[in-house]
Amino acid sequence: MTINFDTLKASLVLYGLNAIYAILLLAIGWYLSGAMQRFVTRLLSVTHRVDPLVTLFVGSLARYGVLAVVGIAVLQLFGIQTASLVAVLGATSLAIGLALQGTLSNLAAGVMLLLFRPFHIGDEVEVAGKAGKVRSLSLFMTELVAPDNTQILLPNGQVWGAAIINRSAYPGTGEVKVTFPVRAGAANALAGEILKGLRDDPRIAEGGTPSVNVSKVIATDPATPVVELTVSAKVKPSDADAVKQRVLDHASALLAAA
Fold first, then answer.
1. Any residues with CB less than 8 A from the CB of 21 and at least 6 apart, and which?
2. Which CATH number, 3.30.1360.10, 3.30.565.10, 3.30.420.40, 3.90.980.10, labels domain 174-257?
3. pLDDT in tens, 202-247
4. What are the pLDDT digits (tens) for 121-154?
């Protein structure tokens, strides 16, 4: 068998040039995908009629769309026909679907979150055991910012499949109730101290006047009677946990001192 070195050399040069063109095309496509995402995001942000969550999602979709077109162009550069590629992918779609079922479920969940929009950018939410402020929604991930400025990335499948607590859905006030047992003799004095401390909290002052009262009797032993003290206050939903913790800390300190 005789090897035609001229033909081999020409083939190597051709495929080498195609490889260089493919690398350049991928680099240009990567840059254009980012530019397209920024352009779409800026265009939708100018209108002020599109929800920021939709803006980020559509921008991410535009980026991946450009990358898909570039990928097809690279395949065609090497002589791979898209029709045959679609046929091969169709024949192996079941295997690919099983292998990527987690990724595909995240994509589908992202579309559902975009359609129903249970939360918006900036909302205080608690989902899948994580709490924070919504920062963005992409095709596959939901990004939250924790109160300590920590980034939380949640797969969309977990977000859509879990209970979502949105503390910013209703901008009005919520109610915080804290109950704890105290000795009957110290109930009045303790209630006055707790009430005095809560009135100095601006988060409670904005929501309404707090109240402290005896809700029920726990133990009727004449030697050591015990009653249940209930503290209630109107606060913003986003401040509910912080105010509740403050009430517990303040009450614990007063009980320890007593």
1. 77
2. 3.30.1360.10
3. 777 555 677 777 777 776 666 677 888 788 877 777 677 777 888 7
4. 888 899 988 989 999 888 788 999 988 889 999 9
